[in-house]
Design brief:
This protein has 149 residues and is mostly helical. Helix content is 39%, strand content 0%. It starts with 5 loop residues before the first helix and ends in a 12-residue tail after the last helix.
Length: 149
């Protein structure tokens, strides 16, 4: 038995595509290469989530805008909208004020309503369900227990 040559085994060549697939390459100067991780209170996270949803941007973009605007307004920064430092010859103080500022929301914060309702229930003498569960499990220490569970 004689082996076939590789050329006979390959078959027809694939035609080149007329359209490029995939995501186009981005501007290499527009890359954010550092990450920031921060532990924050759940109430603050709720505020950031709600406002970023209202403005139609991600939470990360919303926080970045807050930080860049703060640095430009109060710390003497010369940062463009994505946080790159602008050389003094290119910097104009008017750049510190965004043309695409986010409007001030008229909606009340959802977490504020929730916390106020919980505080009102506690003031009225109602035990929250969490407090009852903790007491039933023996994890809640009361003043009269003197350190006992």
């Amino acid at each position: 038995m004689v082996k076939r040559s590789k050329k006979e085994m390959e078959g027809p060549k694939q035609a080149l595509r007329g359209v490029k697939l995939g995501r186009p390459y981005g501007d290499p100067l527009d890359v954010r290469t550092k990450r920031l991780a921060q532990r924050i209170h759940p109430h603050l996270m709720s505020v950031l989530d709600q406002r970023s949803r209202e403005y139609g941007i991600t939470r990360s973009q919303f926080i970045e805008r807050i930080l860049v605007d703060y640095c430009n307004a109060y710390e003497g920064g010369q940062l463009d909208p994505i946080g790159r430092w602008m050389p003094r010859k290119e910097w104009n103080p008017r750049l510190a004020r965004r043309l695409d500022t986010l409007p001030v929301s008229e909606k009340a914060l959802e977490i504020g309503k929730q916390v106020e309702a919980e505080a009102h229930a506690d003031a009225a003498g109602d035990k929250s369900r969490r407090g009852i569960d903790e007491y039933d499990r023996g994890n809640l220490r009361l003043p009269g227990n003197r350190g006992k569970k």
